Batch of 2 targets.
Target 1
Amino acid sequence: MPEESPLSTVRTLKALDTTCGGRPFASVLVVKKLAAKTAANGNAFFSVDLGDRTGSFGCTVFGDSPVFEVLRGAGEGRVVRVEGKVDFYQGRLSPRLARVLVLEESELSTPGLLESLVETTPEDQEALWGELGQFIDAIQQEELRQAVRGVFEEIGDTFRWSPAAVAMHHAYRHGLLEHTVHMARAARALLPLYREVDPDLALAGILLHDTGKAIEYEGSLATRRSRRGILQGHVVLGYQLARKHGIKARLDADRLERLEHIILSHQGEPEWGAAVYAATPEAVFVSMIDNLDAKMGMVQRALRQAAETDEFSERLPGLSAQLLTRRVPQVPPPA
Amino acid sequence: MPEESPLSTVRTLKALDTTCGGRPFASVLVVKKLAAKTAANGNAFFSVDLGDRTGSFGCTVFGDSPVFEVLRGAGEGRVVRVEGKVDFYQGRLSPRLARVLVLEESELSTPGLLESLVETTPEDQEALWGELGQFIDAIQQEELRQAVRGVFEEIGDTFRWSPAAVAMHHAYRHGLLEHTVHMARAARALLPLYREVDPDLALAGILLHDTGKAIEYEGSLATRRSRRGILQGHVVLGYQLARKHGIKARLDADRLERLEHIILSHQGEPEWGAAVYAATPEAVFVSMIDNLDAKMGMVQRALRQAAETDEFSERLPGLSAQLLTRRVPQVPPPA
Amino acid sequence: MPEESPLSTVRTLKALDTTCGGRPFASVLVVKKLAAKTAANGNAFFSVDLGDRTGSFGCTVFGDSPVFEVLRGAGEGRVVRVEGKVDFYQGRLSPRLARVLVLEESELSTPGLLESLVETTPEDQEALWGELGQFIDAIQQEELRQAVRGVFEEIGDTFRWSPAAVAMHHAYRHGLLEHTVHMARAARALLPLYREVDPDLALAGILLHDTGKAIEYEGSLATRRSRRGILQGHVVLGYQLARKHGIKARLDADRLERLEHIILSHQGEPEWGAAVYAATPEAVFVSMIDNLDAKMGMVQRALRQAAETDEFSERLPGLSAQLLTRRVPQVPPPA
Amino acid sequence: MPEESPLSTVRTLKALDTTCGGRPFASVLVVKKLAAKTAANGNAFFSVDLGDRTGSFGCTVFGDSPVFEVLRGAGEGRVVRVEGKVDFYQGRLSPRLARVLVLEESELSTPGLLESLVETTPEDQEALWGELGQFIDAIQQEELRQAVRGVFEEIGDTFRWSPAAVAMHHAYRHGLLEHTVHMARAARALLPLYREVDPDLALAGILLHDTGKAIEYEGSLATRRSRRGILQGHVVLGYQLARKHGIKARLDADRLERLEHIILSHQGEPEWGAAVYAATPEAVFVSMIDNLDAKMGMVQRALRQAAETDEFSERLPGLSAQLLTRRVPQVPPPA
Amino acid sequence: MPEESPLSTVRTLKALDTTCGGRPFASVLVVKKLAAKTAANGNAFFSVDLGDRTGSFGCTVFGDSPVFEVLRGAGEGRVVRVEGKVDFYQGRLSPRLARVLVLEESELSTPGLLESLVETTPEDQEALWGELGQFIDAIQQEELRQAVRGVFEEIGDTFRWSPAAVAMHHAYRHGLLEHTVHMARAARALLPLYREVDPDLALAGILLHDTGKAIEYEGSLATRRSRRGILQGHVVLGYQLARKHGIKARLDADRLERLEHIILSHQGEPEWGAAVYAATPEAVFVSMIDNLDAKMGMVQRALRQAAETDEFSERLPGLSAQLLTRRVPQVPPPA
Amino acid sequence: MPEESPLSTVRTLKALDTTCGGRPFASVLVVKKLAAKTAANGNAFFSVDLGDRTGSFGCTVFGDSPVFEVLRGAGEGRVVRVEGKVDFYQGRLSPRLARVLVLEESELSTPGLLESLVETTPEDQEALWGELGQFIDAIQQEELRQAVRGVFEEIGDTFRWSPAAVAMHHAYRHGLLEHTVHMARAARALLPLYREVDPDLALAGILLHDTGKAIEYEGSLATRRSRRGILQGHVVLGYQLARKHGIKARLDADRLERLEHIILSHQGEPEWGAAVYAATPEAVFVSMIDNLDAKMGMVQRALRQAAETDEFSERLPGLSAQLLTRRVPQVPPPA
């Protein structure tokens, strides 16, 4: 990627005053939204949202701009290098784009690049991915392990990069992988305490419970619900994946039904998206661990984002509360 | 306890036909309910419910019966040996009581007696109690450990025998102890995975979170909500206990406030009884583990009660579902 | 079927006085419930519910009765001819059974027999079934029609006899068939008014929307939810049927997805069982017609059951109201 | 209407850059909101919202402007021709108005004028109005027909122009008429299938069910709830209209009560505004058709507004979903 | 009324043993329910519920009994003197009736008779009625007072005897009168504190707010919802009464609309039956006083029914709680 | 306080045009929010919100500004005199601050100053405070009066200045005092009508019911929830205050428990914040009066803020309605 001038983040650009109008800039950004519109005079134009991890802005690109065709070819979710001049429309940052260059897939591997564009897991995703594989291997029952492996062979790469949600818990790159591995760790720790739960089924259920999200969410850089996501929902999509690979692996009908049931019921209550209420020991166990790790994931993220001096976070919708982010004093103050 | 004739359970008595009217019997039963009423003719009588683990029945005792004064002296929740004759009123079992003998406290220790009267934990309650003590000892921070110890010194014995609920999860003798120890075990297993949670506070919070129930529920053999339970609720009662002993142990104000908050928020949502939403990492953690173990406790009990041949349990209100109680086949059937 | 003595209905038996104890009787009844229990003395016995269209009663059959083995062989949902003597237990009818004979499948075709055992559609089920076939034929798009036909070839007979619900609308024999045909008629009448709705998809969606119930409900004479019904729910089961036969018929992916979506969304809202909200014109249309015909089905049944002199029905839970069953006066009374 | 210069729509004006400040313009607009305020210095001024079908903007008119008195005389909901200069306040379009001319009622009939100001039914409103009359004539029962006719003689013109809602379904000019006629068509199609429904009452109920909205909503160009709408609600207002004209037409008490009941119950559930639950066959039928056509009206509007290239609409609050607006492929793609 | 033998209450009869079968008795009772049924053999019979303040029982009267025609002539809600013999059916009291005599209206005035049949207000209903008249007279504004008076001239007597509810607060004879007078007293006490509330409108609104219940409930001795009650609800019925008499009294339109609004909104929220939310100072005030007195009425009744020795009442559904009925100690016990 | 130039309100500043950029101004304002942030270049800056009763604006103060240290020293909730030049950022008012002077506590007593900064009770707060004292004195029972007095000795001054809410009823300076006195007046007026309510307990309960809010809300000029408010909630905080001073005053256990219960239950339902449902006559009475005065407080405030010419207020969330603010006509218009 050519890097002639220092790149500006969106936060830097937004901090500029209107007196800076006309100043040249260059940035690497994601095409967050690209909507084709028609002006009152009949001319086509694009309303474009460009952003990175620090924020986003909108601008308009008319049909006669050289940039127009580049954007049309790029589409939403692509990473572009843009150059142009700072400008303001109705008081808001709205740069004039002079040049847009779509980055090749290979250029995305520049160290630190993706991290600068989107929020990502704080953990080492390579290690998480390896750990996921170990959890698959830990499933004893042959056909069950094959079924789980089959699902990840089909959707693995998408799964690996997907967020666990658009707006709630683990809503960032690799978030789905992180949440799944965390749940598997929690299950491993708890299974010796709940002997009535079949360890193989519980583990397989955890690994597969959210795989439908790899299909429900689309666009690794600009997440939105896909057509299949809207029309079927991740619960049914995940169920379908498990069913397909369970049959392929010749998993016995009893286990397959129990595995499917874990996925169909893991959202807890129908109004939260479950197809049925959890009705097996494994399904109850998995849905409770899902809830636990989802809530703790919100806690972890709020703590990461908290400034040293803050006492409380902003109100977190998923907890219906502000979180006390100040740590427990190590040396107790006098009572 | 005199044991001249073999004792009948309530189930045995109820299985009798109306043709058995007049047959003598003897049973050891709990006085479940004792309501003083006045007949239309102005005479006093008792409406009495007597029961054991297998069921209960009602009968009427008039003021001129020799049994009347014995029952008045006994009151609800006492264990009595009754002798009388089988009788039926309006088709239902309604024996005539000839003799009632209140058992002394010491007589209750007869092996198997209490177990025949009320449902109890399937685990060894001595061991559970010992384990609770070890969890208290495991709290590192001196004042916090003293505070927790103080609470159990005040309410320990009641706590040890109390059910965890009147009708929902762990609703049996020692159920509160069992549920608390199970939660502590789960916390110990999970704490290494959630490093942002202060282990001492989480553990102390778990041990104390439901201690208010030892005051909310009254009567170890015939559970009902006490006056303080109705007027304050177990959340506030437990908070008060923690506060009293925290101050006594000179626990620093910061930790005390966090400990109180765990208790005030552990029910999850205000409509389920929480005073506030969980707003510290420890409070979120404890409320999630509470939910997990409560649900798993319902699963465990349903599995214990399931007959070999049953496929599903009755509908369990706490799970909104029938539970599949048939075990996973060990040798998978052909797919 | 031997018919030596006149058969008694449950209503007739229940009208008997306790003075009739010992009177012999014979009835043809359904085994509604058959629960194996163990008495306090360790002996096995059955708690049996027997019933016909006019009601049901319970009785107990001990392990040493000759009838015990016959019932064990029969199981729930079978039709039996019972002979015995009228008896009462605790004031309720509880006959002693001397002889139980399981009816063969072929004997069930005796005219009027099934109608005497369970409530059934008021319409000619042969005609309804024929009409269903015509609606299938009316689907123009070749692969779509094949997919629908495939589903009915798989589950047709069960579908034909199944109720549409355990307790709400069309909760009687052939009720599922009746409700589906009524919806198809309504769609045919409305499609010319809503031109944005694809007629083929809407019709196919209606015919298949509730087919999962043929699997969810089990036992044509004593309806209960099957294992698959509890673990997956009829929405997912119906979706699976449509998917299987759609793929088999090589239905194009776009139409298949829309067809599956109609089934997944027809319950209207997730809290009523929908997997997703209706998000295509056809899905909105079908879910609204489903709602309309379900409610009108409750109206029709209440009117059928109303006595001439009644003004209102009992409160109907599905309508949250008592229904005014008195007809509109044909000649208006003076204002 | 004088038309010296080409008129600008609001969309055109908003597309202008701040560099266009001072450019003269002329537009025909609706006075959407006119709020009298007092500045900190005690001077009166108007905060005015002006708009057309393409959008709206706010501006301020001080008491010493020649335009002030014209606006005061006009009031909300009038159509005005404005001339002025483009200006911006705090980055937003906020033109200075030099001249405001209130259009006479007669000028509003200029072809295309009203359509340019507010969204309107896509159908021919003359034809809809004629069809409504035919539905009235189709009511067989003499007094019932007279009652319905009486209501429309009282409120017809307002009804004809009114939207069916402020923000939900059919929320545009003539929307109430369109929705009512669509429901009547649906009823005509369905009545042969539901013979227990009295056709005359059902039709009369449909025609009158929403007539209260002609009173609840005020201002044909800038809709808002009227005083009577806020204090009584359209359900009670429509009931009152039906009652008044039913009595006037000497409709028999039985039919009148049933007709009133349809109106009082058509919203379905009390929490959605129904006074009582539907408790007659006709009331159940009408409330279900209302629901069907309301939802289908949202579908129809979303399809009209969809661009060729869109796959889904925005999220529609009334459907709780994005609608798939792409049509079913006529020639199926390969499976 | 002939009084040859001492009368038995239902409580007395129910206290009898099955050994008392055949004993003659006489009682004065209300016909609570009278349902015409047809036996399996085609014969007509009545299923009758008879009761007094102490309880009720059911019995069957066949078409060939001399009592059959008397009951048919009497109908539900009439007071009858019955004579017969004690009998039991299926263990429950089910007397054989030998003679039934319908009491004349004049005989109902026998002192103490009605009080023995139904629960009634603990206050002097004559005094309450007089006080209601004084509150009407206290309305200053001439037309408003005439409107209120007009309503009570139309429905006064029914209003005077009606309960305020079937099952919730003030659910007893004269309860509606008692509740209305109590609210008027509370308003008189509070009006000096809330000067923004128009006293005349508030008082008129209170007096009329529940008058629709005099039409909604039917049968002074055996309360049930009338046809108009089911089809319109007391809110709309009361609104209609106020409107009719307001117009008759030439009440100005502004006041009439505000008065109607109080009635339409007094239930608080649409889901509790309000047609609209309270939107005037008077309507907010009246709905709050209604809520206050309804809740306090439940408290008063629970205290009246509490035995000296009770600490808590049963759970009161309207309060979602058991009420502490033990009085505050007058001399405080030592702390 | 130096007053060289006339002070501008926020409303005046916001009315300025962008053409006024650079104009000098001076204002006395509250520091509503003060957030320390770090720019992309690593420099510290403050994002500051300043406001008075007429509104607020934000501006940015960089670390090298002389004003930076003054603001850091001041903190949120302090009153400052600011001088600077009018400026705009992205079209919004965003003045450059040249000088900030923190006002001393003593300067806040300048007549009219605080009133210009925050909304306050319309009543004389001195008189309200005196009246509160009289209500305390009116409690007859010695220990109860001492307990109440004790609470106000501890938190009196904070209580006196606190709002009753952040956003709902009585959400302004002294609002808590005003609401409490209004409730006490209402109780005094109603107690003679509800004789089953203990006057001393009811009065004490009212005076203390919301005292926890004096701890829950923090910052008299810029209200926000305190740490204790978030972690415990005002219900528990008030309960703790009552308990502490009740024990100190040696109040008998029975009365103390009833007093605590009033506070724990006054919010009505758990989902609105009550710890338990009201279960004593006094608790039901207090929670109803709380609800009444809260709603009437919203009415009173809407009427105060209504312009002469308004017919309705904006929609009030607490009433779910727009309020009719136009007064009842004194001379009725012709009907």
Note: Chain B has a mean pLDDT of 87.
Target 2
Amino acid sequence: MTYTDVTMVRIYLTEGDRLLHRLLGHLHDTERVMGVTVFRGTAGFGRSGKIHGEGIVDIAFDLPLVVEFFDTPERVEEVLGGIEGWLGPGHVVQWPARVNA
Amino acid sequence: MTYTDVTMVRIYLTEGDRLLHRLLGHLHDTERVMGVTVFRGTAGFGRSGKIHGEGIVDIAFDLPLVVEFFDTPERVEEVLGGIEGWLGPGHVVQWPARVNA
Amino acid sequence: MTYTDVTMVRIYLTEGDRLLHRLLGHLHDTERVMGVTVFRGTAGFGRSGKIHGEGIVDIAFDLPLVVEFFDTPERVEEVLGGIEGWLGPGHVVQWPARVNA
């Protein structure tokens, strides 16, 4: 296989943020990044220390969501610059990777 | 903890590809990689720009799937060489990591 | 965006391990790591080669679970030192990443 350098990104939301549709629309329609996948966690907690999880009735609608995508390092930097105002600190993780070309 | 160097791999499919069983069988029976986990995304899009997701009736059967595994860098290179013909460009992401020994 | 160096960690369990609650409680209450998310896989296998997956009746309660978290490299090293006795070899993967500050 031959490869292209990319930056992997994982953005941590919860369903209660109501940011998912806006973010997906932006990544798809405006930024046209190479690929995006959304995963729903079954439990989790963030900096607040508040646990989000299924099976705890009053937070059943606040499950963790992860929006994962990758693109060239330059594109990822541009894309994240465009959405940084939407997301608090500690919510956007990135690392270098390679994708088959 | 002591560690061994590995390569992490994430392969992006959709349920509509009908590749999952073949790929899992190959990784398990033939390649015997150290560990494989399959995750189902709740929404996503790839290079085509076509959105895959639950809640959109006619693509309810085409949810994203991610096949994740890791093994030594040498083994991963061999394994990916054996399956590269199955997968289009932009579907196999890898990066260096460490696993507890 | 400005960034902080972190170590990403993924811990591979199965539901049958019955370790999830203990591990989450430890990471949340004792270690207070920056954020934890739990994902349930839909199929998988580990070093034993035994396949875990939905749709196979007698192992329906042994689906793969991944506990993902990140924190500073120093904190992650401490945290993993505290739980290494709980987890067999080949179950804790880590790699360097960056998080928005």
Note: Chain C touches chain A through 23 residues (CB under 8 Å).
